[in-house]
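Project standup — Tuesday

K.O.: blocked on the structure for the chain from last sprint. Re-posting the sequence here as requested.
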Amino acid sequence: MKKKNFTLTDEFRRNAFTTPDGYFESLSVRIIETVAAAKRQPPLSWRQALRPQMAFAAGFVALVIAGYGGVRLLDSLSPATDPAVPASLEDFYAASLDMKHLNEETALHVIHSDETNDHSVNTEDIINYLASTRMSLADIASLE
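H.V.: unblocked you, prediction finished:
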């Protein structure tokens, strides 16, 4: 195959880009007018100046709250996989009682005796207090 010789005609050789008449003569005047117009704009108020930073801070706070909520949700949905952790406070009490040495007479004596008014702190009071402070049952069980 023979290649064709490509030649530019005079029509394509001339410059297609031209400037309007008087463009460069009026350029400096237009630049000065544009700069002067920019100087005439009122200064930004402190609210306008801080708006981007406040938007960033609000987005960051929203992200932290969403992350915290997600962690709490996932934590509440996941079942306790540790068999040593009782499922409820009643299970914890039942597991901690020594049922072999408990009889009805001893239980009634403790319930009706005045010895409970001696302002001493027993194990059950401590466990009740720790449970009311939302301490996990696993942490309470590890204290014994």
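K.O.: great, moving the ticket to review. DSSP finds seven helices and no strands in the chain. The mean pLDDT is 76.
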